[in-house]
Amino acid sequence: MNLDDTVKEISSLEEKIAEVLVSETKYITDNISKSPDLESFYYGGAWEEIQNGDIVAEELAEIFRDEFASYIPGLADEYMKETGVDLSVDTLTERSNSWINSWSVSLGLIMVLNFHKSVANAIIDFISDKKSVSDFVKHANDKKIRDDFYNARQASVTEILRAHSVAQQEAIMQNPAVDYKKWVHTGIYITKPRMNHVAMNGLTVAKEEPFTLAGADGAAYSPMYPRDICLPAGESMNCHCTHRGVVNENVLGLPLLVLQQLQAEAIAGDNAVFENEADKTDENNLTNPDDSGIIDTGGDSLQDFKVNTGGLRNEEPLTQKQIDESVEYAVKINSSSPDLYMPPERIRYSEQLNISYGAQFDVLYLGTDTYPIPIKNIGTDAKSANSRISWKGAIAHELVGHREASLKGWTQANKLFEEAQASIRAARFTLDLSGPERITLLRDAVYRLNKNGYSISEVRDLLNIKER
């Protein structure tokens, strides 16, 4: 593997990211400069409008998607050849293609949400200190909120190294001469090592199985490779670990045609496993896969939207405290707009119903599945985004996603697009959702679109996701 090529790739990606981040900072400071004071800007609705108009998440997603799609196949081919087997990587598995699409979108959103949070915190501090708009703009331009070039460098290094891990795993999965993979800790003499990563050195597992990493936070993680996106940032940023396939020398001596056949079978086998995992995800996601995402409730299927848990969300009766906080949150979501206000008398709890929005009578039904099950109870094979959607995210999906679109006449006739629209709207416009809550909702939309042959960029103009 040529290190110089990796450095060049990092620099190229860094330039693209930096250009977008600089433009985002300018977009926000230019708009803030138009306000007479920070307090009216922040509390008068201008800040919310600016966040909604910030398209950088989409721009970053396109940059990362193009980078991963063009870079990973060639890397995987190089990693394949390093094992000594006379095979090429001519196509990626569905698992890797799905990862490229979904992680690109999530990564763009993470970066923008983190910046918005930093800006909001800074504004609140400046308001408290009675500082002016010009003081704030100078603060931002002095890179005190975000150093665009440093962030671009950090993101490009991490994501190029992550691309290496994904490419290596792809090569390992396709390689018939590899049955096991080994975690390799590197960089101990040039970086301050994480001792839990040092302890991973030499750990060997079957190639289709995850490693088990004891996190610095005390939690146990199951990454398929170093810098797997299941790991928190503290375990991925500046991590220089690698993993590699353990070669079975006996297989290397097989005829080329046999090796090629085994490679094709490996790709088909992983695609089948991934498809089966995806089917399980569909069965337990926000929507019904057999109906492009909407469960038939006995009436107009475009008028009642329901969450199907498949056992991966809470099935125990909610406590009165949970019911009360759910109702309070549902009312709060639309409390600032008289036209969208959802009165508590139209919010009903039933242990026999899934969480759902009934458009015919403008009613929100709360079910036991409003809440997820504890994360410790979710098996390692549970891939469903729905199993991780918070109770706030589930309510936002129904009210901001489906209800607000319905009241404005924006319900999609295409059921797949309706569900994607609902998750994206909830992720973008529900102000008090955390970053992870937004990402989980957005991943639900991305996965559904990708599985049906669409990308967000292809359908963006068809969906009502640009304004609340």
List the helices and strands and how they pair.
Layout: H1 3-33, H2 38-43, H3 46-53, H4 56-82, H5 94-128, H6 133-141, H7 148-174, E1 178-184, H8 195-198, E2 204-206, E3 213-214, E4 220-221, H9 233-236, E5 242-247, H10 249-252, H11 256-283, E6 304-306, H12 320-333, E7 347-349, E8 356-358, E9 363-366, H13 391-407, H14 415-429, H15 435-451, H16 456-459
Helix pairs in contact: 1-4, 1-6, 1-7, 4-5, 4-7, 5-15, 12-13, 13-14, 14-15
Can you describe this structure?
This protein is of the alpha+beta class and 468 residues long. It has a domain at 284-462. It is built from 16 helices and nine strands. The chain has helices spanning 3-33, 38-43, 46-53, 56-82, 94-128, 133-141, 148-174, 195-198, 233-236, 249-252, 256-283, 320-333, 391-407, 415-429, 435-451, 456-459; strands at residues 178-184, 204-206, 213-214, 220-221, 242-247, 304-306, 347-349, 356-358, 363-366. A hairpin with a 5-residue loop joins strand 3 and strand 4. The chain starts with a helix and ends in a 9-residue tail after the last helix. The model is unreliable at 281-308 and 376-383 (pLDDT under 50).
